[in-house]
Amino acid sequence: MIRLSIFLILLILVSPFSIAQDSLPKPTKLVIGLTEAPPFVVKEGNQFSGLSIDSWRLVNRSLDSDFSFKSYPSLEQLLSAVEHGEVDFSINPITVTDQRMERMDFTQPYFISYTGMARKSGSAFWTYISNIFSWNFLSAILILVGVIFIFGFLVWLFERKKNPEEFGSGGRGILQGFWWSAVTMTTVGYGDKSPRTFGGRFIGLIWMFMAIIMISTLTAGIASSLTVQNMQDEISDIQDLEKFGVTTVQSSSAQELLDQYKISSEAVLNAEAGIEALLENKTEVLVYDQPILNYIIEQKNLEDELEVLEKSLKKDYYSYTFPKDSPLLDSIDPILIGSLKSMEWINLIREYK
């Protein structure tokens, strides 16, 4: 009887504690890291919208979690925050790569994208005109003029005394030698001037054969500098980017790709900074996520100035990103997969495309 009384007393004392434990509030609200990446993450004031935000709201219908967004100025800072647990996870469109999988965990992909290339566009006419005044064209012309002058001068040295009527003295004679050299090189053959000395004819013979080789080489160089080439045709694989000035976004999967193939590039803070570099002629090609490039160019009404090439460099898979071994991954991943099969998500994808 005494034991029973003690048990009942203990039960009465412990029960309020148990009830209090059951009534404890849920864990503190989730902190989700973000950085601007339109159309997936668009920031207007303190409000966020976009396809990634919509995907999270679909997922959170099932989780019913309290959450807040924490914004970072760059992708590099966001990835560092996720890796070091400053945020619970990120819903940004972050591409899954081998290097990132060593540092962080990922959900199943919620969007398939491509690494694309943007460049400054312009009319073929103005491109042709600008090429005429380019250094490549001018240097080819200067080399051609220099070689013509050298052989004309050599012939003049032999002919100036024994053939003064055709190759006079002084500056006038040098110009006559230049004229002969140009006529000989182009095989026009006016016949108004011809070397008569052994030395002059020997130089002329060398020049005739050399001119055949040199004129074809220099003509090809001049034609190449004037040709309005389409970058779309010039880039058949990623190694072709070595011929251009390339810019990409710092710490992006595009930068990882370029570094992997040892393609020299300039890194900027975000896609908007890369677009500005294109507009200001600070770079020739911006390599980054294709849908983001398309969206920014369209939103800024830059279709007449910039274009995204049809060719892409690789396929990308966007996923939510978590610190390594985060327990949240196992609860969020299945819900995300289920939401991707809903008609609402399919309609959202169509809207953003």
UniProtKB/TrEMBL annotation:
Descriptive protein name: Transporter substrate-binding domain-containing protein
PANTHER family linked to this entry: IONOTROPIC GLUTAMATE RECEPTOR
Cell compartment(s), UniProt: Membrane
Keyword Cell wall biogenesis/degradation in record: no
UniProt signal peptide: 1-20
Species name: Salinimicrobium oceani
Keyword Protease assigned: no
Main location, first listed in the record: membrane
One protein family per Pfam: Lig_chan
Gene3D superfamilies reported in the protein's UniProt record: 1.10.287.70, Periplasmic binding protein-like II
Transmembrane portions of the chain: 137-158, 170-190, 202-223
Recorded topology in the membrane: Multi-pass membrane protein
Keywords: Glycoprotein, Ion channel, Ion transport, Membrane, Receptor, Signal, Transmembrane, Transmembrane helix, Transport
Ranges of residues in domain Solute-binding protein family 3/N-terminal: 29-349
